[in-house]
Amino acid sequence: MTVSQDLSFISLISNASLLVQLIMALLVVVSLMSWTFIFQKMFAIKSARTETVSFEHAFWSGGNLQNLYQRAGSNSKTGALERIFHAGMGEYIKGKNAISGHTAQDTVAVLDGARRAMRAAYQREMDSLESHLAFLASVGSVSPYVGLFGTVWGIMNAFRGLANVHQATLATVAPGIAEALIATAIGLFAAIPAVVAYNRFSHDIDRLSIRFETFIEEFSNILQRQSR
User: Fold this and answer.
1) Is 133 exposed, middle or buried (0-12, 13-18, 19+ CB in 10 A)?
2) Topology versus the membrane, per the UniProt entry (predicted)?
3) Which residues 6+ apart lie within 8 Å of 197 measured at CB?
């Protein structure tokens, strides 16, 4: 009964050395932050995917580009792809109104301006979607080593404590080693979800990125045909 109490989870943490406790606390805080970003990113990507599908349906259904542009400008809750379209269409309209003639050089300048505006909007959207991914990657790669450091330190203290013991038994060694191994367990608990989430989110964002870039090229071709 006494051994069971000594090896309880809370007891092992409370009896660990100060440094190991600090490492455990750090890993718990990092894990909580990681889960917060995981849920935020999960909902953000799901929303971006839904909004992208909705706008693509509206765009390719043959609607008037001016109406789509006005709707995007008046709607405060636009999706990423709709904001890219709004940036390109707005620059195209400004360029068309600014040029005095209709020479080929003027047309190329207007189309280049629209494409640059869409690329700039695309980069802003990608920066927003990729936010906190670097944190998840760092947690996934570093947390096991931080936990392992706590484990090594705890095991060192456990063996140092045996220096004054004349006869070392499993009962005397087990609590110290168990205390140390908890740090590694917490490190893995923080790292595994972060790695899985990072890989999944990176895949989903790459797919959205391809859809955005494809739309930019297709919309640029549409504007080019309209400029002739």
Assistant:
1) middle
2) Multi-pass membrane protein
3) 34, 38, 41, 42, 136
pTM: 0.81
CA 159 remoteness from chain centre: 41
- Own/partner contacts of 124-132, CB < 8 Å, gap of 24 or more, are 125/80, 125/83, 125/84, 125/212, 126/205, 126/209, 126/212, 128/80, 129/44, 129/45, 129/48, 129/80, 129/205, 129/208, 130/205, 132/37, 132/40, 132/41
9 versus 210: which is more confidently predicted? Answer: 210
The CA–CA distances, whole Å, from 13 to 20, 30, 32, 146, 154 equal 9, 18, 18, 16, 11
Condensed to tens digits (0 to 9), the pLDDT of residues 107-147 reads 788 889 999 999 999 999 999 999 999 999 999 999 999 98
Q: Show the tokens assigned to 124.
A: 């802003």
Number of alpha carbons in the 13 Å side-chain half-sphere of residue 62: 0
pLDDT tens digits for range 74-101: 777 788 999 999 999 999 888 888 776 5
Domain that holds residue 164: 2-227
45 with 129: CB under 8 angstroms?
A: yes
Query: How many structural domains compose the chain?
Result: 1
**Token match 């379209």: residue?**
85
Q: Is the dihedral of CA 85, 86, 88, 92 positive or negative?
A: positive
- Residue 87: closest CA among 69, 62, 74: 69
